[in-house]
Amino acid sequence: MTHIASPESGAGAKESGRVCPASVRDGTGPADQAATLRRMMHSPSAQEAAETRTALTIAVTSGKGGVGKTNLAVNLAVCLQSRGLATTLADLDVGLANADVLLDVQPRRNLRDVLGGRCRLTEAATTAVNGLSFIAGSSGAEGLSCLDDSARVALADRLTRLPGAAVIFDCAAGIAPAVMTFARAADVVLVVTTPEPTALTDAYTTVKTLLREGYAGSVRLVVNMVESRPEAKDTYGRLRDVCQKFMRFPIADAGYLLHDTHVELGVRQRVPFVLCYPKCPASICVAAIAARLVTAGTARKGQPGLWRRVAGMFT
Question: What residue spans define the domains of the chain?
């Protein structure tokens, strides 16, 4: 049986932070971006000022890259939107933003425009498949990682106040400050892993860092690329036991995704696999994960009736 490295071993404790350059490509330096963002957050429009936090916010992250995090975030967002929940997907993967590729969209605006003061957050949204609202990141841009703490918190707060029933953050992998800030702002954090020992060790480090920084929401594990349900349950059980032993924290089981060739086919076609192959094993697994999140949504204020109606569609 594969073991997860103990917290004393230091394995998996690497961060995905980046060294900030003097300026970004458009000539706006990190300090200018932070100042612009703070001004926007502190002087919102009348509509933005009236917004309250009613959407269920879900951060999707992972301890390491290559575990299918973005693919899950995209297909989960499409799955919720397709079942009547107005959903926004925000690509917050610093430096490696590619959700637009999976959705086959070419946004006219992205988060760099928001940071540069050229548009507000809601104005950066692009309508994607089935009416999904998509806020694109900017591949290769260092803007998010260079923002100071107060600016990141301000952006995270605005993201949680976006209209709709659900907002999904596609966070970067690792435990860099930007990742933790956006994850801590969400109601639910989905930590994606695979059964591989390195992925599990890094997933444990992610959970440990979240708790160390005072996260009070729900942390749930998604096991991707498994060959069977027993393998998924065994993988979840190993991480759950380690979290309980060293942190006294019972991480929840969010579900799993079976290894499925339809996932790769969907990527090649640049169409979410839940749309082009709705009955494939991976799509059924995503629907099951979404159903659990919908169950969590019924307990939130704001739109309980809508969440209950959608829950019936999953069953």
Answer: 27-299+307-314
52 and 249 Cβ atoms separated by less than 8 Å: no
Task: Report whether 68 contacts 224 (CB < 8 A).
Answer: yes
| Selection from 16, 23, 280 nearest residue 172 by Cα | 16
- The CA-atom distances, in angstroms, between 210 and each of 63, 96, 239 are 11, 22, 15
C-alpha to C-alpha distance for 270 and 122, rounded to whole angstroms: 25
Structure-block tokens of residue 225: 């690329």
Burial 191-201 (b: 16+ CB within 10 A, else e): bbbbbeebbbb
Give residue-wise pLDDT tens across range 127-138. Answer: 999 999 999 987
Distances (CA, A) of 106 to 99, 118, 135, 281: 11, 18, 11, 29
- Topology of domain 27-299+307-314, per CATH? Rossmann fold (3.40.50)
Query: Could you report the per-residue pLDDT of 159-211, keeping only the tens digit for each?
Result: 999 999 999 999 999 999 989 999 999 999 999 999 999 999 999 999 999 99
